[in-house]
Amino acid sequence: MPWCMFVKRTQYNLMKQRILQILGLFFIILIMFVNFGKNETNTVNIYGWYGIFPPEIMKQFEDETGIKVVYDSFDNNNILETKLLSGSSGYDLVFPSFIPYASREVLMKVFSKIDYSLIPNVASIKGTLTQKFREAGGDTNYLVPIFWGTMGIVYNADIINKEFPDLNEVSYNELFDARFMKKVSKYGIAFPEEYIDMFPQVKAYLKIHGHNVTGDKDAMPVLASIRKYITKFNSTTTMFDMASAEICLSICSSDIAFKTINAGKSVGKNMKYSVTPGMTPAWIDCVAIPATAPHKKNAHKFINFILRPEIALQITNYSGILINIPQNYSQIDEDMQAIPNIVPNVEDIDGFILGDPITGKEDLERERQSTDLWSKVKIGIFKN
Fold first, then answer.
1. Which one, of 133, 168, 167, 164, lies nearest residue 147 by Cα?
2. What's the mean pLDDT in 15-39?
3. To 10 degrees, the CA torsion angle through 131, 133, 135, 138?
4. What are the domain boundaries of the chain?
5. pLDDT given for residue 40 in this prediction
6. CB neighbour class for 150 (10 Å; exposed up to 12, middle 13-18, buried from 19)
7. What is the DSSP string of 12-24?
């Protein structure tokens, strides 16, 4: 190699090394900056679902308390659980779904006990849903059952009415009928990503039709008959997928249905949300304080704040998520109450919470088997 080329190559390598060193230093400074924010005394670090809290609520909390809110969002319980199990996440508050996640995480001792003396507003959540939560195995020492809703079917009524003029409402009876699914599949159909959002409804369907049901495995033949007509397994993107006509029907939670119906109105689409009597479970999301939370007192202050009835009402009207405060239900925005099935009477729900809680090793094994079965459904493998 000529000497001049050797010098140029050496200079290039030195410059490249220097750039990498600068980038590495920048990355270290960035991490320190993020961690500084999470360890600041007057801070509460929250890891919650995307789109729950209106910005003005966060500002009001900061103005009233002087505590800065650092909010990170997730759209999948598995992501939250991975962070909780990785050690010190730096979060002060998290919002896991009750079954199977929060119940399993209590078993894994990742949460700190709730100090109810610091959240007097918890008195407002006494009622039917809290009772159902406890009856289903919910541990209120570590979890506060705060958000809830139903699982149902949101669909483009114009498309369904065109294909099935005599059908008043889509129910699970239609969804588990291969003839219906085949006809609708050309418009796109979405099912939930996780087994917990599907197996309970299939088993309820089988019981209503006189079948003996012993576990999630009994749901496999029903799902096998319709699997090829399912376009995707993701209900978190339902609002966008239906507005863009990628799908015309989705099994999803009531809050996603609420947003989907409103998004549909803005683009001239007639969306509806249906629930099937005897086959519609309630889901519950909890608030919990990680055992490693650096600002536990601030976490309790935030819980107490969002359990104020007037604050909770603003959150519901913004997100479509119901908050477990019975006195609020009659005061929810008229536009939201006008959408059929979005705001059910908690006294009238079918009486079962979505899924079975994790309370011991046997439940962990059952949950592992259910996860494996659902993976086979998604892949399309039904033979033993």
1. 133
2. 48
3. -130
4. 43-147+285-326, 150-282+362-379
5. 58
6. buried
7. HHHHHHHHHHHHH
pLDDT digits (tens, 9 = 90+) for 124-144: 888 788 888 888 889 999 999
String of DSSP letters for 174-238: HHT-HHHHHHHGGG-EEE-SSGGGTHHHHHHHHHHTT----SGGGGHHHHHHHGGG--EE-STTH
pTM confidence score: 0.84
Vertex 307, ends 303 and 313: CA angle to 5°? 135
Q: Per CATH, is 43-147+285-326 categorized as 3.40.50.980?
A: no
* Spatial CA neighbour of 129 closest among 334, 327, 333: 327
In angstroms, rounded to a whole number, what is the distance separating the alpha carbons of residues 175 and 309? Answer: 38
Asked if the 150-282+362-379 domain carries CATH number 3.40.50.10150, the reply is no
Cα–Cα distances (Å) from 18 to 11, 21, 23, 261, in that order, read 11, 5, 9, 54
Residues 358 and 364: beta-carbon distance below 8 Å: yes
Three-state SS at 161? helix
- Alpha carbons within 13 A on the beta-carbon side of 8: 5
Rounded Cα gap, residues 177 and 327, in angstroms: 40
Alpha helical stretches, state H, the chain = 3-39, 55-65, 77-85, 103-107, 128-135, 157-163, 172-175, 178-184, 199-208, 220-226, 238-243, 254-266, 296-306, 309-319, 334-337, 361-379
Q: Supply 210's token pair.
A: 């006189």
